[in-house]
Design brief:
The protein has 16 helices and 17 strands. It has 540 residues and is α/β, with parallel strands linked by helices. Strand 13 and strand 14 form a beta hairpin.
């Protein structure tokens, strides 16, 4: 099922990474394991709370877990429980995906030219993907904004759960979000940081339904604090459109956010993600639907969320390229905060779906309002739902009965149970549990509606910080946006917490390689995607 890298492969890759750190920035820049003279860095000052008192919205309070700052719930991973159905279908590996890139020939030559140390020389890898106490083979300098001889400063943007709860959009938060991220930063620094530089994190919060507030947080992090990179970025139906403030307007490398073609076109700095881009999600969903016969004879009506209209041409082109009939299309052009306006528009759209004879609705973007509208208009028995936003299905909010989403099909990766049982992810769990922040870490399928969900921030933050650390280490001592970007393209086979198969390239900016079809089951946890087919590796 899951395409796992064996332990011997991991050890060999760790050894190659240690040796490859002696290369220049375009490859993997310098470093051997630290000798006995290297001391453990002081992590006491590795957290900084931003001062945004001049902004309309205040930043997270580093002294209080009640600040509930976090990333958007719109990117949760598929969930299973012991009662989840076992995958019943196997899927042949697709022809090369639109997003799968070949490994550059010059990179392959470099890797084969590196003399691999003995297995005994490779230190074990933890959640960060870095061997402990790795050091650079050249002096560390203040190579760029936010980078000194001793530190790398990153900006961490977290979703404001206090606001979400006040608005009635969610019943509970994600525990002490800043405490979770800082625990991972402290553990990274205690193990040598990134080639000897400590990571310093500064934090701010934002509203997921307010692009202006997201841009305010971006300005606080990039201009008031001059971070080297942003980690997590923005997610949400409106805030997710503000990611170019980091990677475009402020020329700041970004790891996270929501990568759409329109937003990527605005980027001037390198932008990578743990999850696939929206284009990749769509492409892999349609490939899997065709391969399993679910697209046969389908008459599809496409409904695009207002924040995803830029992706609509790619969705229509993807359907046409695979011979899937499109009978109509519409845009749900109303804000997520205005459910009355959304429901009124969906009444009109539902009539069009009936009139056009559609038997399938392809939802482009956040699916909640469209599914609610289909339910209110009695359409759910007449159509099958496809969604290119699996994370949105996992976070439908509190505005309607989740039973209405039963059977909705998406493309997703490892299930929550896969992630929870992953040894590397369990190292993240260990770090957070040992941090003394009162974490109650359980799979979300075990939580009641009003239980704080600690699993989601650990999953997201551990994966994103690990990806940032591995790219920054590969960039070597001369850390700049250019070396950061070139280093990412050398990572063609690596591990992230809960995700054993990953790769990056100039045409594949989302790391995950594993995909499967999922279906929404409201009876699992608070309603989650569960596996419909086996996982396949699109970059074997």
């Amino acid at each position: 099922m899951i395409h796992k890298r064996t332990q011997s492969t991991l050890r060999a890759r760790a050894a190659v990474l240690v040796a490859a750190l002696a290369l220049v920035a375009a490859a993997c820049g310098g470093g051997d394991e630290a000798d006995d003279e290297v001391s453990t860095p002081d992590t006491g000052s590795a957290s900084t709370e931003v001062d945004s008192s001049s902004s309309d919205s205040s930043s997270a309070d580093s002294s209080s877990s009640d600040s509930a700052s976090t990333d958007s719930p719109a990117e949760e991973t598929a969930t299973t429980s012991d009662s989840d159905p076992e995958p019943t279908e196997s899927v042949s590996e697709p022809a090369e995906s639109d997003s799968a890139a070949e490994q550059p020939a010059d990179e392959a030559d470099e890797e084969t030219a590196v003399e691999e140390p003995s297995e005994e020389a490779a230190a074990p890898l933890g959640w960060s993907g870095l061997a402990p106490n790795m050091t650079a083979d050249a002096p560390l300098t203040a190579s760029w904004k936010g980078v000194t001889e001793d530190t790398i400063t990153i900006g961490v943007s977290m979703l404001n759960f206090d606001l979400l709860q006040e608005m009635g959009l969610t019943a509970a938060g994600w525990g002490d979000q800043q405490g979770v991220f800082q625990a991972l930063v402290d553990d990274l620094n205690a193990n040598g940081g990134i080639l000897g530089r400590n990571v310093v994190a500064v934090y701010d919060v934002y509203s997921p339904i307010d692009a202006a507030d997201a841009e305010r947080a971006c300005t606080v992090l990039t201009q008031d604090n001059e971070v080297f990179a942003a980690v997590l970025g923005f997610v949400g139906p409106l805030a997710g459109t503000a990611d170019p403030c980091f990677a475009g307007t402020n020329n700041t490398p970004l790891v996270g956010g929501e990568q759409t073609p329109d937003e990527l076109a605005q980027a001037t700095a390198p932008w990578f993600n743990v999850e696939p881009s929206t284009d990749d999600h769509t492409s892999n969903l349609l490939d899997l639907l065709v391969q399993t016969g679910r697209a046969d004879g389908a008459r599809v009506f496409v409904v695009s969320h207002q924040a995803s209209t830029g992706d609509e041409p790619l969705v229509l082109e993807g359907l046409a390229a695979r011979g899937i009939e499109v009978v109509g299309k519409a845009v749900l052009d109303a804000n997520d905060g205005d459910t009355a306006a959304q429901d009124q528009l969906m009444q009109v759209i539902s009539e069009r779906i009936r009139a056009d004879g559609a038997d399938t609705v392809m939802i482009n973007g956040n699916p909640a309002a469209t599914i609610r509208g289909l339910g209110l208009n009695g359409m759910l028995d007449a159509v099958t739902i496809w969604s290119n936003n699996a994370a949105g299905l996992n976070n439908l909010g509190e505005t309607f009965d989740h039973e209405w989403a039963r059977g909705a099909i998406a493309s997703d990766g490892p299930s929550e149970l896969d992630i929870w049982n992953d040894d590397v992810f369990q190292d993240c769990v260990r770090v957070v549990n040992d941090a003394g922040i009162g974490a109650d870490l359980r799979p979300t399928a075990e939580l009641a509606d009003d239980d704080e969900n600690w699993f989601n921030p650990v999953r997201r933050y551990c994966g994103h910080l690990s990806l940032f650390a591995q790219i920054a280490a590969a960039a070597g001592p001369d850390l700049t946006p250019e070396t950061f970007e070139q280093a990412a393209y050398t990572l063609t086979d690596f591990v992230l917490p809960g995700a054993p198969a990953n790769s990056l390239s100039p045409t594949k900016l989302g790391a995950r390689d594993l995909y499967r079809l999922t279906t929404f089951d409201p009876d699992v946890g608070n309603g989650e995607n569960v596996p419909l087919t086996e996982l396949i590796d699109i970059v074997p």
